[in-house]
Design a protein that fits this description.
Blueprint lengths: L31 H26 L8 H18 L8 E2 L1 H4 L6 H5 L8 E7 L5 E8 L8 E9 L14 E7 L1
Parallel strand pairs: 1-4
Antiparallel strand pairs: 2-3, 2-5, 4-5
Length: 176
């Protein structure tokens, strides 16, 4: 069905509407520079993600094994047991026995095998500073190490070591 339009005999007074001028973008397209900038930004974003992602997981990745942590804990326990006077106080260490120079670490503290990567030292509680010269074993140079600490008191300081007013100290064992 078609609908007939009534034929208007009157002359149209209204003129034809002027056409809108438009600019065609289809001739422009994507230039090589646009493509290069887009790909460059994408590659930089992907590179940033791959370099940043491992640093998020780093604190949970330890170069110290569970065996080394257990060994440090056993050595600290054995030291406190062998060097303390169990009659008076279990955590009171005899400083003279700790600082004896004859024999190695194994002979001094009664350990069967301590290994050559062990450091034992007595530090102040409030700072990481050695009390006098109370350190045995190999030198610790801030490398990655398993550590274990015990709070102890010292009843007989070795000759030449002044303990000061401190009531308690920290016995720190490091194994690497």
């Amino acid at each position: 069905m078609t609908r007939k339009r009534p034929h208007n005999e009157q002359k149209r007074t209204r003129g034809r509407r002027q056409r809108t001028v438009s600019i065609s973008l289809r001739d422009r397209g994507q230039t090589t520079q646009d493509f290069a900038v887009g790909i460059g930004v994408f590659i930089l974003a992907v590179a940033f993600v791959f370099t940043f992602l491992p640093t998020i997981l780093t604190p949970f990745d330890s170069s110290v094994s569970g065996g080394q942590t257990a060994q440090a804990d056993r050595i600290a326990d054995r030291l406190v047991h062998n060097l303390s006077d169990s009659d008076t106080s279990p955590n009171t260490i005899n400083g003279t026995t700790f600082n004896e120079t004859d024999g190695g670490l194994e002979d001094r503290v009664g350990l069967r095998t301590a290994g050559d990567r062990v450091n034992v030292r007595i530090e102040y509680l409030d700072k990481r500073e050695i009390v006098g010269d109370l350190a045995i074993g190999n030198e610790y140079t801030d490398q990655s190490a398993a550590s274990s600490a015990r709070i102890v008191t010292i009843n007989e300081p070795p000759s030449g070591v002044s303990l000061g007013d401190e009531a308690a100290y920290r016995l720190v064992v490091r194994v690497w």
